[in-house]
Each structure stands twice: as structure tokens, then as C-alpha cells.
Amino acid sequence: MKSNNLAIKSDENSRNISHWHDPERDGVPVTEGTGAMVTDAGGDSYLDFVASLYCVNAGHDNERIIEAITDQLERIPYVSSAKENDTRTRLANELADVAPEPLTDVTFSVSGSEANELAIQIARETQDAPKVLTRWQSYHGSTYGAANLTGDPTTRNAVQAHAATTGGGKFLPPIPEAFDAEGRELADKAADHLEFVVRNEGAESIAAIVMEPVAGSSGGYPAPPGYFERVREICDEYEILLIADEVITGFGRCGEMFGMQTEGVDPDMITFAKGVTGSYVPLGGVVMREEIADAVRDGGTTVGQTFAGHPVACAAGYAAIQEYQNGLIDNARSLAPVLQDELASLQANHDVIADVRGRGLLWGIVVKDPETGKPFTNSWVDDEEENPVADVADAAREMGLLIAVGRPDYQLLLSPPLCIDESDVADAIEILDDAFATVFE
To answer: Which domains does the chain have, with CATH numbers?
Structure first.
């Protein structure tokens, strides 16, 4: 793992400006990876418990995916997104097979943000309605349309500082701190609130409701039992499409191929990206019900993206799905209770941990201020108040573990590759235990 040397800083001579760049924090210049481990330019290794960006689901050196990419490059590296291609068709058919049964057809994009924009464009056209509802404390992307869906005001305000977009509405997420309730009471209160928003916005003006089955970078929180059943009923009653944003939760992250399959509720569309190729090549898209697909086909499409459904990405995607079905999802499912138990023990060891919540291999750790007993001040609200949560992530990195700071930033996120084993879980929790002690004791 990590040596005693400090993490090497990013190359000061680099002309690259990284995304989510923070001039006050050093990055890790990753140069190599194998399995769930990555290595920086100084030769130090780290256990990657965020799968780089919630996306390297198959690990950093999966041979089947690499071989599929190579084979496709040798046949033909690119085919226009306006034309048919055998590799693209094969992946679309495979995605339709592994998605919830009512979803039958696929259209591709390049990224998750673009997948969400594509889904809401389809929803607005087929529903002939302008509005899309999403949750506060959600993340759906950082392009203009996707940022409008995003409940994280840091992203939305940054993107819309000079030109706002329209057609978006927000409602509260089903979390205890929003409704002062838990379990079935929380599910009922959150669903009643959503219905109140729908009725006051005007159901006929709403094309779709977009939700993550389990929140991704916004906290790893799952819905309480019964919530999604009520959401499905509300959507059916008011003739609103239910779109599941599975950019993070898809492809084994929650213990099934798609996160909605852990809820037993079928959406009208699923958006995907990240894990579809194991992140080896950029790819995103939308899986939709047959009647929606028929409407799109009948009307034709007048917009597109040059690299949507890139054949090399589709080859990687098909290989990745074979790997997920060939043991990786089973491994994630078997390790989920191990990680959950270890996180519960971590919480018991540190009074500053207010809650751990998640599903499968996607978990959030909510950290509270020991002086107030409440979560640290959200920097969305006040960036002048002390918030040492990011210091825990920094301390863990110095000890050889990569984790993420959530949105809001009073929480930490764990999202390891699906190829981890029990010893990786034990190592990660041991480092986190030390990191919390370093910062708070």
C-alpha cells in the first residue's frame, strides 16, 4: 500500500485542468492499476474504494474487456452513430435482455449527463409536457440540462451562473432528516410530499420524475421499504413517466444488474453510463419501454451525438456485462453484508459517525459535529464554517485508501470495484478507523 512518503503532487508543469479541481487540495496522479488497486507516479499504491469515480466496477485490469476493445479496434474503430453496426446492435440487445422486463429498446449517448438529457428529451416529446421533477440532494450531471435536474446547488449554480435553464422542479428526498421519520412512516410521508408537489405543479405539465434507486454521490441513501411502490402508483395515477438514473447504481453496484431490480419496481426508462463498460471506454444511454421506443421510432430523431454508441465502447460494454454475470455481481452481493457489518462496527467505534446507509457496494457515512451532535455545516450553506470531513478522506489517502466526499460534504462515500474481497474490506475499514481517530481524537 502507501509508503511513508507524502502523496506525490500533480505535475506542476501539466497544462491539463482537471475536472472538480480544488486548488487547495493535492490530487493523486494515478498511472497504473490492477484489480482494486491503483498506483501513483511516485510508486505508492492505494486501495481504490471509490472505483475511481463510482465506475470501475470490473476492476482496473479486466482482460476480457481489454481484449474486446482490441478486437473491435482491429475490425473497425468507428461507425457513425447514424448507421447500424453489429457490435452496437449486440450490446443493445444484451442490455434489453438484462434490464427489467418491460424495458425493450436502447438508444446510446456518450456520458451519464447526456444520457439523462436524452431521457428527458424523449420524455418531454412523448408526453408533450415541459416539466421534470427531481429530488433535492441528488446528482444527475453537470451539463446544462443535467445540471438543471441536479439537486446539488453547487453544481447547478456554477453551471447556471450566467444562463439558467427551465423546466425543472424539486421535491424532498426520502431521508430521515427531511421528514423526522424512519421506515414505513418515512416512506409514506415522503411519497405524500411527492404527490403534493405533483398536484401543485399540475400533473398535466409534468413529463417525468427522475430518481436514483440509491443515491450516488449525494449520500448513498436508499429509499425506505414501500417508497418506490408508492412512487410507481403516483406516476401511474397522474400519467407521469418514472425514469431511474442508474448511472452509478447500474451494473452490479447494488447487488443486481440494475438498482431498480433491488426494489421490485419497474421504471419506464433507465439511464446508464459509468459501469456499462467498466469505465474502460465512455458510453451511456437509455433503456425504455416498447411503447416509448415505438413513439421515438415513428417520429424519427433529428438530433444526435457523433460518438454515441461508439463501437469500441459497445464492445467493451458487451464484455463487461459478461464479466458481471460471470461472478462479479455474485461477489458484490456476498460482500455487501460484510461491508455493512464492518461499517456498523466503525460507527460504534466513533461517536462522530451519525449514520451509515447504503446498499450493495454503495455506502455513505454521515459525520456529525461532536459539539452539536448534528451533521457538520453543509458548505452549500456556509463555506466559512469548519468542516473536517474532507480531512478524513485526506488522512485515509495518506494511509493508502481512496474514498470520496459526498454532496453535501458532511458525508463520505464508499463505492469499491466489484472484484474486491473480504481482506480488502477489512483493510479499508482499518484505515478508515485510523483516519477518523487522526482527525477527531
So the answer is: 30-61+330-440 (3.90.1150.10), 63-324 (3.40.640.10)
